[in-house]
Each structure stands twice: as structure tokens, then as C-alpha cells.
Amino acid sequence: MTQDLLPISRIPRTGLPAHAVVVGDPARAAAVAALLDGAEEVSYHREYRVFSGSWKGLPVTVASHGVGGPGAILLFQELADAGVRTFLRFGTAGAMKPGIGDGDLVIAEAAVRDDGVTQQLLPPEYPAVSSPEAVFALQRAAREADAPHHRGIVWTRAAFQPGLLPLFSYDGAGLAAIEMELSALLVTASLRGLVAGGVLVIDGANADELVDAETTGGYDPHREVVAAGVERGAIVSLEALRLLAEAEEFTA
């Protein structure tokens, strides 16, 4: 019956596992779900593709939220309505400073709220911060997976391509990476008292001084080094969820 489904994503109102990995691409959701035991597709409506299964005994939800904060926040809100309490965003991003290589992971400590949606919900002074336990779980999982990784603040920006307006510069601010959805998740989680964090695979360099289009051929996220990073990141995300659930049981 339609009343048993939430209106935007068409996911069930109840019954989803409380721990979730959220990704942009529906195909990536399927790839992460393929790592689970007993994976089943729960729903697929618009960009919102949702699976459930288990990772080392932990029931897990995997869901895609599409590109950009405005659409993504709708999924985050409905997953929370359906009972998800722990969110890890697993996505891709561009490096913003030297020393962060293609295929490396960036674990987000916080995000700049330039997402195009949360500014219409809350004053700009309200922060977008990861749950500390999510940061530590992701860092531990990355270390155990021997995955090259970094911690830092990321820039969530609504516009993917440059436009006519000058791009506000964060030069000197030490931002690690730029992506499009994380701050929407972190704000949603803070407002609802949920656990949330993010781990991002670097698929290119975005800071002007790092880009050498003549050498690299320009932005290309489909390279082997990025694919290898995505494979590592999927494992890190799922294992971090397990570590978070384990810690919850210990402190309950």
C-alpha cells in the first residue's frame, strides 16, 4: 500500500537497518551492496536506490542520494524517518591541497555549508560537523585496511561547474577536499540527534594550483587509481559502521 512508503524516496516507513552507507551513484549503491551478505534491493525510485543486507553480522542499509544537496537531503530525512540512526556518506571528491593523492581517502571532520539547501533551513552560523565517533571509526577502519587517508574539513559546494560569478576562494583555509552533499547530511544528523560522518575518495585535483590539465588531460574520475580507491573506501565505510555498532553495544 502506498501509505506504507515514504513519499519522496518510496522507501518503507519501517523495517530498514539502523546503520546506513549513503552514496551518490545508484550503481555505486549496488556495488557496495554486493559486498553484503543476503543483499536485497528494497526500492528504486528516481535517484534513490536502496538495499539492505548484513556486513559481518551487522544489518546495513545502502542507499543512493543522487547529485547535489537539495535532492540528497530529502533521502537523508526520509531514511531518518524510517529509523536509520547512523549515516556514513561514501563518495568522491576533489583534492584541495598538496599531498592528497588520487585514490586517497579523506575523512571529513566538518564541512563548509555551501550546499545550496541548508542555508534555507538554518542560519549560516550553524555548523556542519561530523560525529567524533564516526571520524574515529573511519580512521581506524582506514588504518586496518592499509588505505591511504587524511582527515580534514571539506567544502560542500552546490555548483559542480564554474559559472559567471567569481568563485569564493578558501585559499589558506586548509580545506582537504571539495564535494557536493556532505554538509546536508551533517546538518540533518545534528538536528535529529543522529550519528553521521563521511569518507571521500579523491578522483582529481580541484585547487587551481594543483591542476595540470596539459599533463593529466583534465578531470577524469574513471581511472584505475580512482577505482582502486573506491574499492578500499567501500570496505572502510562498512567496517566503520560495524565499529560504530560495536561501540554502541559496549556503551549501552
UniProtKB/TrEMBL annotation:
Reaction equations catalysed: uridine + phosphate = alpha-D-ribose 1-phosphate + uracil
Listed EC numbers: 2.4.2.3
Domain Nucleoside phosphorylase span(s) in chain numbering: 19-241
Listed InterPro entries: Nucleoside_phosphorylase_d, Nucleoside_phosphorylase_sf
Superkingdom of source: Bacteria
Protein name: Uridine phosphorylase
